[in-house]
Amino acid sequence: MSDPFAPIKTDQATKSNRLQPQKAIVMPVPDEAPEPPAFHPKLGVPSQRWTYRDAVSEVLGYVYRFDEAEAGKSYRPLCLFQVAGQLKWRWETWSLPRPLYGLDLLSKTSDMPVVIVEGEKAADAVKQLLLRHVCISSPGGSNAAKKADWSVLQGREVAIWPDADEAGLKFADDVAGCLEKVGAASVRFLDPPDDVSNGWDAADALADGWTPEQAEAFVLSSQVEDAEELEVKPRARGVSLLSVAQDLELWHSPQKRRLWHYVGEWSL
Q1: What is the CATH number of domain 103-264?
Q2: Gap between the Cα atoms of 75 and 25, Å rounded
């Protein structure tokens, strides 16, 4: 299945440019823009919509979730473009680097530590669980972290809450590398607790009935600086992030060891 967040390939873009009027993304969305569509032409009515805003709460675009009986859940970005002099909504993603989800909250809480999760649903859950933190995420899922603009986290204290699966570990690694480049003040990793299912995240924690007190205790007790501090724990219904990681070539690579050494030298 094609990735709706993937940029158009060069040969496709060249052919497309010959067939279509030139277009340019418009951010933020102006007042005179048409209303965004209520449904997708192929996927129908969305089950959820997340609004991306800039630091002053202006709309930058949307991400929609669709739940299909056979295909399951899927996500589509929606951005505003100027096409042949007209403003039109298109089911296409942002230009690189892409904006983060939660920029409006981040700008209002400069003194709060930041939690990064994978996905908008998990980010919304953290807003209810961690009242002393501000939460953000990046669009496009676990494989697109490097395509986002993380520069706004320069000088911020950050904790990464990964999904409890292989993709979640990759996302955490990619984000940590981006934070190293932009100069985050500190970075910690949150090790998912015992007996959680494969893919468990903050949204699952909220659905499981976690309280803000439980979430704060989780953050304080599970933060680690170095990979060696993470324990390989049996999962009652899933697998350990690190047991998966030990099977990955990247886990033993000099690049991975360098990254963990760097993160291990940071402190809150």
Answers
A1: 3.40.1360.10
A2: 19
